[in-house]
Specification:
mainly beta; six-stranded antiparallel beta sheet; 0% helix; 52% strand
Length: 113
Amino acid sequence: MKSQVRPDTFILACGDGNSRLVSLHWTKWTGRTAVARGVNAVNDCKPYCAAGTFRSYPVVVRLESPQPWEKDPQVRQFTRLSLVFTGTRPEGYQRVVTYQLGDSASAPQRTGN
């Protein structure tokens, strides 16, 4: 899989895809931060995940805290992703949700391009 500098989708919930970012439109991309608007598609898992319904929630996505990539220190990757729900949000979610990203969780990002 080829890494993308500005992805238009991103899986948040392990590999099952029950929470993913879609329709990402990047408005800022620098060596220190990136910002996009998009949709968090979340499976409500009711009555259980395989039979659940995906619901769409508008979000602002922020990538921060670039660090050297373990496999190639010349390449930096963002290590923190924050979502700000701009309208309704999934049950149990805070208005702002932050995820730590690591080597296995995110593709390397060349910053400053």
